[in-house]
Amino acid sequence: MSSSTLAIHSREEHIRYLALAAGALLVLPFVPFGNFVLYPFMILSTWFHEMGHGLTAVTMGFDFERLVLLPDGSGFAQYSFPESAGRFSHAVVAASGPMGPAMVGSALILASPHEKLWRPALYTLAAVIGVSTVIWVRSLLGWIVLPGIALLLVLIATRGSPTLERFTLQFLGLQAALSMFQQWDYLMVESAVIAGREQLSDTGAIEAYLLLPHWLWAGLIIGLAALMIGASLRYALSEGRIPTDWQTRIPRR
Taking the model in full, what pTM does it have? Predict the structure, then answer.
């Protein structure tokens, strides 16, 4: 692939591309077939969310049993826990779901100014998606969509231009972050229906274990996520961190 693909000529042009991408993510759900275009990204966002629950559960000594992705774009992580598990551990696992996309998004954006990290970051994300599909994913939808996303990331890392690699990291970071904010209505309710069953929302679960109102926890989670994403974007898009010579560089092949 030519190094001129998606060539960036200025910091302002790069920011404009990202702004257009973010705008498309926000607008597409409201245009015909927009949700069809966004569907793989919606599934990826749910994967970020549920893997946040599952991996945090493992660190807390719980048993992460399975991750199920549903056709409507929702999903759930199922885990078991020892009787000795404390209320704080349960609350942390509940909070890690909505914070998962923001944490992954921030990490991808922070990696984007450093060329030596572009391919490793793409390969790592593809590998984690692939391994999680084999170990934890237990739904046909997940077995179809997730390997496709992983393969695409590998193709970008091996065949894409340097600009495309960087832009992919930042785009996925933005997409993960926006998916978290687009779930604000879920965070602001105490319970929701998932897979045909009414159950506590993530913030409702935190309220059950730590007593303070669910809407307060929702505000704290949204505020912390906004700070994380804002700081990472400020770092990645600051002066001197966007090369402007990719259109004349020899491809890294």
Answer: 0.86
In whole angstroms, what is the distance from residue 104 CA to residue 60 CA? 19
Contact in structure between 133 and 144 (CB atoms under 8 Å):
no
What is the Cα gyration radius of the chain? 19
pLDDT digits (tens, 9 = 90+) for 63-77: 999 999 999 989 999
For the stretch 24-46, what's the b/e string if a residue is b when 16 or more beta carbons lie within 10 angstroms of its beta carbon?
Answer: ebeebeeeeeeeeebeebbbbbb
Bridge partners, 68 (sequence order): 76
* Token pair in block for residue 40: 């793989």
pLDDT for res 252: 53
Beta pairing partners, 198 = 193
Beta strands 63-69; 191-194: pairing state? unpaired
Can you list the positions of beta strands (E) in the chain? 63-69, 75-80, 191-194, 197-200
Burial class (CB in 10 A: 0-12, 13-18, 19+), 179: buried
The domain locations on the chain are 41-241
Using alpha carbons, select from 111, 213, 217 the residue that is nearest to residue 171: 111
Question: What is the distance between the alpha carbons of residues 156 and 164, in angstroms, rounded to a whole number?
Answer: 7
